[in-house]
Amino acid sequence: MSDSIDIINxxxxxxxxxxxxxxxxxxxxxxxxxxxxxxxxxxxxxNFAQGxxxxxxxxxxxxxxxxxxxxGWTISGVPTALLAIPIAIIGMSIYLLLMDRLxxxxxxxxxxxxxxxxxxxxxxxxxxxxGIVRFFLGASAQRFGDGERFIFSVREFKxxxxxxxxxxxxxxxxxxxxxxxxxxxxxxxxxxxxxTGKAMRAYSDNKELALLSGIDPDRVVRITxxxxxxxxxxxxxxxxxxKGFAPQQYHLLLLPIFASVIVGGIGSxxxxxxxxxxxAFSEILLTYAYKKFLIYLLPLSMHPSSLVxxxxxxxxxxxxxxxxxxxxxxxPTGIFKGKVIVDE
Amino acid sequence: xxxxxxxxxxxxxxxxxxxxxxxLLFVGMNQSWALALGIFNMSLISAIMALGVNIQWGYAxxxxxxxxxxxxxxxxxxxxxxxxxxxxxxxxxxxxMFFALIMGAITIIGGIFLNRFGVNKWLTALLVIIxxxxxxYYFSEAAELIEAxxxxxxxxxxxxxxxxxxxxxVGGLAAAGAAxxxxxxxxGLRTDYLAIATLGIxxxxxxxxxxxxxxxxxxxxxxxxxxxxxxxxxxxxxxWFQSLIAWLHKSELQLLTQSEQVERLGDYVREAAVVFxxxxxxxxxxxxxxxxxxxxxxxxxxxxxRKVRAIRDxxxxxxxxxxxxxxxxxxxxxxxxxxxxxxxxxxxxxDGIFIPTAYQPLRFTFLIWVMVIxxxxxxxxxxxxxxxxxxxxxxxxxxxxxxxxxxxGNNMQDGGALLEFIEERVHYLRLVFxxxxxxxIMRFSPGGILxxxxxxx
Lengths: 344, 457
Fold this sequence. Notes:
heterodimer, A: mainly alpha, ABC transporter involved in vitamin B12 uptake, BtuC, two-stranded antiparallel ribbon, 2 strands, B: mainly alpha, 2 domains
């Protein structure tokens, strides 16, 4: 076997186990991080309920798609969850707007440190949301994807290219990447070009000035929650299709999501996306076992005997934390200069 | 009506504590004394934890979302201090592990120094990575050796075999150390960063505890931790305890025959031994809680306390007066976390068993938060009251929930499946319930039951 084939095999291996999972996990994180950044820019607090809200949105999708499968409302090959998403977004919007009306709205009216009250209130919402999800779905992990699992599988790829190592493209990965690109494009178009989007940016930059020029704050907040519902439901569902649904997993997603937001620069949408991919790829690159990869590239005498894994998979959440700490030490504003590093 | 209100306003603390005491007495007389004392002791431990959080939140407005992690550090130190060392494991891999940890420490410290002295960044990074790889190599080898030693019973290094009381101090110091590190990085930046960082560190502490079997046995739990108080079995066999119980129940026992007397006395002694041990713990916890309350009240009323409150109420003004806000916040954050660590150590001592999976954010972080906010943030007595109320609700809400479900079941004809479903899941509603309590207090009574007296607003 010649060397160039080995290198191609090694690259195929890396694509299958690092690049594709990294791209889809990064996209899921990016959508969640965008939601956190939006809430932060407009409502000026870090939303600790984000992870559990994603679980809530996914729960709606699970129930709806279950119902739709029962009724036979399916399209062959397409995960039913995808068809359930639009209705779930409506449900999620209602839930978030209700929470805003009952919990957050009161504090916007009074003069008080918004960031602290916001965190406390969102932690309350986090536990309520988490409790509701666990009550209806239980705490154990489950899968809810149906339809074709692969766009093309390892075997098909191998037969097609004749390589030793195959690449599989899972439907969930394909959906994640496509949907994320569409959603991000829509969001940026909305924020940059539409009048409402411009109003939102103005409100985020300078609240007083925006109010003076006649922007309706309630409307801005409402639109924000609608966008958050859109991002949250889709991010949650995609993550669930990819890795299965478990409430605790979603709750812990908070850590990589916050790391993404802060790495990118809190309040900066572009930064949130960049941060999400940075976190996702660090997590996967550091926990991937390079043994097979090195066997392809190194001569026989240098083949590793151990797994060549830098950090055990069980510590993947520690990676986002370490990234967070490093950023806070070196550049607290994040890569794309976020807005504030000290309390207003 | 107005009259009642003024009396309540004047004697809030006394009245609410009396009511709480009466409720516990009621539980003792109607359910059992062991249960009532169990609730009482756990409330005391929670109160110490709440006190630590109150110092952070009430005194300085610092938001700690990682109470669970600091409590777990306290728990770990009980195992590390009080358990007997496992000599075989130390012989097998102790030296290697020691070497690995030293290597790790050298790598970290060396990295910091190289960075500080402006050595080329890439060279520093390379050296740190090499150090990490060497550490990891020896570390995993040592961990394997240690974990292989009789894994069903030991499989870890054990502790130092010192009296358990030391572990409370060490637990406090460990938590304070972790808090210092976190605070150093995040204080002085936005409040959110501290919250996020504490959330992260507490999850990571637990991941380490659960995954590193050589350290504190991971998910295999550590049983039979030594106690600071006598064992029930010893109490039952001691003569003076038996005669004390016999004397207490003298009038009743006299009416019985000889054999009945012995049998009845045995029952009483068994029951009384449990209660006695719990009472010993109560005394211990009350002493520690009392000491903490007295100390923190003294501190709060000293010039130091005024400075702290001034910073909390108006950072800009305090800063203009030349107070170093970041240093002050760091100090308070470390003290508060240290107290949480002590409480965590006391909790594991009381349980006599270390179970990593018992550390749930709801139970450790969130519940303590609700206690502090319900009781009245900034008021130490308020935190204690909050701890008693919330712990009582927490313990009793399980059976209450089931009871409600059963009542519903009696009135429903054919809801068997639905009922079973609810019965299985009803405990998750405690999350919703506690979250609602938190939001309601925040909204309608931000000061809590016993609001802080000298808040200048």
